Amino acid sequence: MKVSDILRVKGGTLYTVAPDEALSAALGVMSQYDIGSLVVMDHGELVGMLTFREVIQAIVENGGSLGTSQVQSVMDDHPLTCMPATELDEVRRMMLGRHARYMPVLTERTLMGVISFYDVARAVVDSQDFENRMLKAYIRDWPVESRDEPPSSNRPS
């Protein structure tokens, strides 16, 4: 399974923010749409990711408030990225290795979408459920051997 399979199911809605945007405004967007991340774009280029992790760290460092922080001061300016053709096993390894919950998907320099660890986990579970149903159907349709005839592997030569 590839990242493109997840994007096809997810749809194409992207939520972005500019690096010079107020952090409080970015949080308002995240809260309004119930999303855990925003892609930080500057002049059509990916320049970072803003997730609740960075926001919480900024609040702690600022003594419990947002203050007048801008997105660029707290964003991850080197986020993990992948391509639509990247295999899900590789994405899982990358995300686990960096404790990343969100990953922008790029084709060359064009943002195609964002996948979350939840998206990856759901795709894996759906794939396993499908395989499980197919195996159960196969077993259910297993041919019954005749009682009068011994199994072919036990026939005398």
Topology readout:
Layout: H1 3-10, E1 16-17, H2 23-32, E2 37-42, E3 45-51, H3 52-61, H4 71-74, H5 88-98, E4 102-107, E5 110-116, H6 117-140
Question: Number of helical segments?
Answer: 6
Instruction: Report the mean per-residue pLDDT as an integer.
Output: 88
Low-confidence segments: none
Radius of gyration: 24 Å
CATH hierarchy class name: Alpha Beta
Proportion in helices? 40-55%
Number of strands: 5
Under CATH, the topology can be stated as CBS-domain
Major sheet: order of its strands? 1-2-3
The name of the CATH architecture is Roll
Largest sheet: 3 strands, mixed
Shape: elongated
The tally of domains stands at 1
Strand percent estimate: 15-25%
* SS-based class: alpha+beta
The end-to-end distance, rounded to whole angstroms, is 46 Å
* String of helices and strands: HEHEEHHHEEH
| CATH superfamily label | CBS-domain
Characteristics:
157 residues, CBS-domain, two-stranded antiparallel ribbon, 43% helix
Describe this structure in words.
It is a single chain. The protein has 157 residues and is of the alpha+beta class. It has helices spanning 3-10, 23-32, 52-61, 71-74, 88-98, 117-140, and strands at residues 16-17, 37-42, 45-51, 102-107, 110-116. The protein has a single domain (3-140), classed as CBS-domain (Roll), CATH 3.10.580.10. A 3-stranded mixed beta sheet has the order 1-2-3. Strand 1, helix 2 and strand 2 (37-42) form a beta-alpha-beta unit. The protein starts with a helix and ends in a 17-residue tail after the last helix.
